[in-house]
Amino acid sequence: SDSHFPVPTSPRHVDYSLHYPHFFPSPESNSCSQKIEFADIGCGFGGLLISLATLFPDTLMIGMELRDKVTEYVKERILALRVSNPGQYQNASVVRTNSMKYIPNYFEKAQLSKMFFLFPDPHFKEKNHRRRVISPFLLDEYAYAIKPDGIIYTITDVEELGEWMKSCLEDHPMFESLTEEELEADPVVKLLSSATEEGQKVSRNGGQTFKAVYRRIVPAGQS
Ligand code: SAM
Questions:
Q1: Where is the active site (predicted)?
Q2: Of residues 15, 121, 140, 171, which has the active-site annotation?
């Protein structure tokens, strides 16, 4: 249950020196202005983070994962990569948490430039869709945490879930779809299926995937 992992009381209480010691050598250096910008929600075994870490070496990123053992695995994986590639992977980390409850504890308003929901668990049988990671209610939270022009990436191999995520995003006033050209030009879009363990599994089995990639709009008058 949630009582088994600590939850920071606010984003100011996230100890950056634990996650990114290369960037924040001591807890005091936490007051540094650099913040986490990418969040991989339900990161699983961490494949996406590992790819993004070298693609965006100056950007701090975090995976959020509910399962304890999986989180430990990702932690070890990143530590091993840091050792074998000096100077690299210092910008990636992972935390065990329930992302459906604690996003506001980790991220301030307009902090994130990218948020990922890759192959989330479908939870179709649940009443009121309350356990789905994309819902109108949670999109309000994500719209708060993502900065204007920031991007939310979703992908699934479950068609019904894909349609649900797309319709939630389409109906939300703070998000707009990327154009085909923008999707084509964004190198991160290609990683959604190729870099994640789940995506690789789906493509090995010849499965279809359904993406929805949306931008957090800049509210009128604030451009
Ligand atoms: N994104 C990874 C990928 O594409 O390979 C993993 C996909 S896996 C099917 C879904 C992951 O989400 C699981 O590792 C699960 O433990 C995690 N998860 C489910 N609910 C969660 C929650 N409320 N908070 C954080 N992680 C969660």
A1: 121
A2: 121
